[in-house]
Write a structure and sequence with these properties.
five-stranded mixed β-sheet; alpha/beta; Nucleotidyltransferase, domain 5
Amino acid sequence: MIIAIDLGIKCGWAATRGPYGYIAGVDRIDDCCDDLRSILDALLPLCGPMDLDFSLLAYESAAWHQSKASAELYGRRVGVLETWAALQNPPLRMESVKPSDVRKAAGVKSRYATKDFEGTPAQRKRQAREAGKAAMVAKARLRWPDLDVLDDNVADALWMLEVARQRWPGSV
């Protein structure tokens, strides 16, 4: 079993459901700890029985944050994941996935050139970031047509799940 979590304010999640199925969704995290624990607790039974040999919780590693506050919030959320994973029976293995590996799995350009967009430098940067998110969502909808890929958070979680399946095949 693999669970993949995108740790944003809107928490995208995806998980394997048995050997062939996937489930995915998005929930809002207002309170750092309680909301995230609730999402994980609700998600676990939907995944089916845990693999006693190998179960994995993958999350997107973030090396850069817009502020000290966002870095601290991210750190607290990773701490919640680690604690929750360790308390499961059997404990889940934790693995981080780099954002560049997520984009690579989706086949999306690592960076869109800001010169391809119009406006101020900040507007061009935002437009380039949005183009990358839109491409991730479009490719996820093509790859998993039976799932409701609501936004880039769900798409990120699905592509993280794909990276985890490729890296740790024993966890499926």
